[in-house]
Amino acid sequence: MGAQLRVYKRRIRSVTATKKITKAMEMIAASRVVKAQRKVAASTPYATELTRAVTAVGTGSNTKHPLTTQAETVVRSAVLLLTSDRGLAGAFNSNAIKAAEKLTAQLQAEGKEVDTYIVGRRGVAHYNFRERKIADSWSGFTDEPTYADAKQVAAPLIEAIEKETADGGVDEIHIVFTEFVSMMTQTALDDRLLPLSLDEAAGAGSAEAKQGEILPLYDFEPSAEDVLDALLPRYVESRVYNALLQSAASKHAATRRAMKSATDNAGELIETLSRLANAARQAEITQEISEIVGGSAALADATAGSDR
Questions:
Q1: Residue 67 has what DSSP assignment?
Q2: Nearest residue to 57 (alpha-carbon basis) of 210, 240, 173, 223
Q3: Do the Cβ atoms of 169 and 163 come closer than 8 Å?
Q4: φ, ψ of residue 175 in degrees (nearest 5)
Q5: Alpha carbon distance, N-terminus to C-terminus of the chain
Q6: Distance between CA 268 and CA 290 in Å, rounded?
Q7: Is 170 exposed, middle or buried (0-12, 13-18, 19+ CB in 10 A)?
Q8: For the segment 30-66, what is each residue's pLDDT rounded down to a tens digit?
Q9: What angle (nearest 5°) sits at the alpha carbon of residue 80, between those of residues 74 and 86?
Q10: Contact assessment for residue 223 and residue 63, using Cβ atoms and an 8 Å cutoff
């Protein structure tokens, strides 16, 4: 019984140490997710207003531009997948990867070639393990992305959309990221980044016209095409930056939830092991008492026999 008790005590010490680590990681993730939420809230209005400005230029002119014009025949698509550099975040990375693979399969079923761009070591490792081609990848900044990181990611995408498909360019760009909904809910989704869909804007404009409102008229200097050329990199960078911040906040929230679950499980395991250790100690004490009583009885019988 002594050996069994030592095993239980050793496991309790091990689980207690693990519980301290997961609790610390939970507290770190909780502090980081608050900062990430603030950055998301600060960047979202800029990305939204810039999208509206681009939409206004697109609907207010007849200029054909890769930012707003859908190619007649889409030959190649780019998919940007956002994952994290580290794990211990539950199903955060696997959900994003599944969404990217589903989108890729859908695009390929439509007869399109797909170039995959990946942010985060987890996504890169997943694709490398399965020997899948990666057009470009980035890592090392997924926990706290900056606008400079977004510009670095957006640069090859902008270059690809401006090229002809015969020269290695793409006709459209999709982005797969995890949207931060709340501390308990993070949703992996895909969104077409380019070309920008103007259908909703056109519908909204028709609705306003029906209500008798005067729609704004735009004059472009030097031209609508030059305005779109200037807005293209800013639009892509702002959308990528916002998606990076959304993914970072989602990752920290997922890590916090996963570490809290691990901490609670460790506490339950410690209670179970403690009960088993107490039972083993009681059994050991009972056996020792039985051995003492048995030895005393045997000694008494031996003494009685010698007195006769």
A1: T
A2: 223
A3: yes
A4: -125, 135
A5: 39
A6: 33
A7: buried
A8: 989 989 989 998 888 888 888 887 777 766 666 676 6
A9: 160
A10: yes
pLDDT in tens, 144-200: 999 999 999 999 998 888 888 777 888 899 999 999 988 888 999 998 888 876 654
Encoding tokens for residue 152? 């670095």
Residue 191's beta-bridge partner residues? 175
Contact indicator for 68, 195 with CB cutoff of 8 Å? yes
Tokens for 294, please give them: 């048995």
Contacts of 307 (CB under 8 A, 6+ apart): none
Locate 137 and state its tokens.
């990848």
Query: In a 10 Å sphere around its CB, with 0-12 CB exposed, 13-18 middle and 19+ buried, how is residue 80 labelled?
Result: buried
* Beta-bridge mates of residue 137: 118
pTM score of the predicted model: 0.80
Element (H or E) spanning 80, and its range? Answer: strand 76-82
Residue ranges of E strands in 223-290: none
Radius of gyration of the chain from its Cα atoms, rounded to whole angstroms: 31
Q: For residue 203, name the pLDDT band (cuts at 50, 70, 90).
A: very low
Output the six-digit token pair for 128.
């490398």
